[in-house]
Amino acid sequence: MSQTITHAFDAAGFDALLASQSEPDWLTTLRREAFEHAEAMSWPERRHEEWIRTDIRMFQLGKFGLPVLDPADCDLTETEQLHQLVEGVELGGRIETVDGCITKESLDEELAAKGVVFGSLSKLAQSHPELVRPYLFTAFDPDHDKFAALHAAFMSGGQFLYVPRGVVVDRPLHIGSILTDGGTDTTHTLVVLEDGAEATLLHESNSTDAGGAGLHLGSIELVQKPGSNLRYVNLQEWGHKTYHFAQQKAVIDRDCSLQWTIAAMGSSLSKVNQSVDLVGPGAHSQVNGVMFTEGRQHLAYHTLQHHKAESCRSDFLYKAAQQDKSRTVWRGMIKVDPAAQKTDGYQRNDNLVLSHHARADSIPGLEIEADDVRCTHGSTTSKVDEDQIFYARCRGFTRKEATRMIVTGFFQQIFDRITIDSVREALGAAIARQVREYE
Amino acid sequence: MTHVLKIEDLHVSVGDKPILRGVNLTLNHGETHALMGPNGSGKSTLGLAIMGHPGYEVTSGSITLDGKDVLEMAPDERARAGIFMAFQRPMAIPGVKMADFLRHATTNVRRPDRKEGEELIPMREFRKELREKMEHLRMDSEFARRYVNDGFSGGEMKRAEILQLAMLQPKFAVLDETDSGLDADAVRLASESIADIGHQKMGLLIITHHDKLLEHNPPDFTHVMLGGRLVETGGKELAEELHQHGYDRIRKAYPDAEALNQKLLAEEAEEALA
After folding, report:
1. pTM score
2. What domain count does chain A have?
3. Residues 6 or more apart from B216 whose CB is under 8 A from it?
4. Which residues in chain A have their CB less than 8 angstroms from residue B92's CB?
5. Quick one: closest CA in B to A433, which residue?
6. What is the dihedral of CA A27, A144, A317, A169, to 10 degrees?
7. Using 50, 70 and 90 to split pLDDT, how confident is the model at B197?
8. Is A302 inside a domain boundary?
9. What is the pLDDT of residues B62-78, one digit of tens each?
10. Is residue A175 within a helix (H) or strand (E), and if so which, with residue range?
11. Per the CB < 8 Å rule, is A395 touching B147?
């Protein structure tokens, strides 16, 4: 990363960003507030429970510039890496971004005619404020920490999906985000499904260079109105020198169904807070998490399943495999409010540690304030068993083939839960690419 | 040419503890050998040494297949060369379906020169063969969709091993107590299944305590192992004798080997407690 920084994450950069956007006043007000908060906040303390295992002393915000503010400055058109999730899939619409700038966007005319909106968040905030304003920052909390506040102040580009009441988007929609070496992406993804709406959104993030540096300071907000049904897939393969800080939140209402699959393979350091708030009776969420790390990667995922209403189900399964000197942190929490009787909550994290120097931290948690609930949690950490490898070798598998098979088998439980063929295949391929020979 | 698996003066240690102390055994293709002996005598060690288990160190002696040095080969190379062992306690591989495991295994064994990543046997062709073999062994087709040995009963594991034997069609197979943990009916079925696969089509080394598994696979030779050595070799009447009368005669006839056997057993018991 050799480019000079034109605009930094400071007051001058903030003014330049405001000047470059022609956005409504209410959004500027939100930004200003967030910027003030960000300025006043200090970086997270190491002693803080969320950061005790994740060392960010090496991270220097000053090394990164703001995302490209003028789309004309994005000259990258090669985005082949971005099509893994959609192999053989007929799409209803797609968005491609480079360093947060939208380079391509399309939506099937039939869907547009039904009132579906899918495109640039910053443009749509201007043209469709009545759809964006009521929901923006309702799930996301800009005051969560300094990273969240900075994101809110400096978010750029972004994507917005809106599906009106009762509309079924019968073909998947796709977002592909790519980061150039040394680039910055502050994308905000907002998804709103009105009553009874249905959609599938496939979202993949990549770097132009697998070893690329960069900064992603992002957020995802999923807002689901009663009876809506969303399948959201997020494949994260940022370059291996990229920082990834994100707050990813869903708020799902009565009788909603959310299947959220996250595959985290990339970045040098990730700190992600993922949560699902179940706010209406009968809501159901399933989260499938896959992490596979190598080198010195450090991926920290903090998940929260917050039951605020009665008779909801949440089911979180994270499976992680660690190679080389990499480390993953999973910290899960099921929170059940006093009103959330008849909660059915499940959380589990399984780890397969593939090298002596790799490490997995797994911290499940429960915080239950209702008395008629069923909540279970579990966590396992194991190594690849030499006896398993020997057994497979006695059947003609090479050591590498045996290891790959065992690792793939480890993740199979997640694949069994994923209902989209192309996603299952892309994840299987992504995992197979990562597996190496271990001694 | 008749294939020959030849074991000469084989010494095997686990850690620094000698288990096998000079085993000589020649298996010709088409022959069935029974290997019997009391617990701790080293029967399973011989099987694992033939397959190349990394924990079993060959300190001297040789194993050759048609004159080729087997000890130089990695376990997967031995499998591809046509050596097979049915495990006494096969490992579970969660998340991997029997059918997928077997398709890959069968491809590698049938095409010993296959490189990683090259095509497997076509799915349709493989499924047809697997279905036929399973029907033949009277196995439920559902079996192929289950994860390898995961949650299998003892009997199911042993039948899965026999299915693998049927698919891989090795030149030589060691069956390590493929009858243990099975009831009388299941043992009879296993015995019939092995005969169906065709004991005359391979060289078989059947490690067993009983003669039931041998019912349909009468041994040409019976070997008795004690204290890490083959102390006696006879025909199938020796297997019958040992099954009916136990090892008392053998123990008395070979007091030195018996003393070693007792010592190994005592050490094993100590380790189990530690």
Report:
1. 0.85
2. 1
3. B191, B192, B194, B195
4. 388
5. B117
6. -10
7. confident
8. yes
9. 999 999 999 999 999 99
10. strand A173-179
11. no
Q: Is residue A101 part of a domain?
A: yes
Task: List pLDDT tens digits, range A374-424.
Answer: 999 999 999 888 999 999 999 999 998 998 899 989 999 898 888 888 888
Per CB-CB distance under 8 Å, the chain A contacts of B87 are 391, 394
Task: Domain of residue A301: give its range.
Answer: 11-385
- For chain A, how many helices (H) and strands (E)? 9, 21
Q: At A251, which helix (H) or strand (E)? A: strand A241-252
In this structure, chain A runs to a length of 439
Kindly state the tokens that stand for A130.
């009545």
- A237 found inside a domain: yes
Please give the domain boundaries of chain B with CATH numbers for all domains.
Answer: 4-89+170-273 (3.40.50.300)
- DSSP for B94-113, please give it: EEEEHHHHHHHHHHHHHSTT
The Cα diameter of chain B in Å comes to 58
Residue A423 lies in a domain: no
A26 part of contact set with chain B, CB < 8 Å: no
A77 has a pLDDT exceeding 70: no
Question: Rounded to an integer, what distance in angstroms lies between the CA atom of residue B162 and that of residue A408?
Answer: 25
Structure tokens at A135: 């929901």
ipTM: 0.96
Residues of chain A with Cβ-Cβ distance to B169 below 8 Å are none
Tell me the count of A-B CB pairs closer than 8 A. Answer: 82
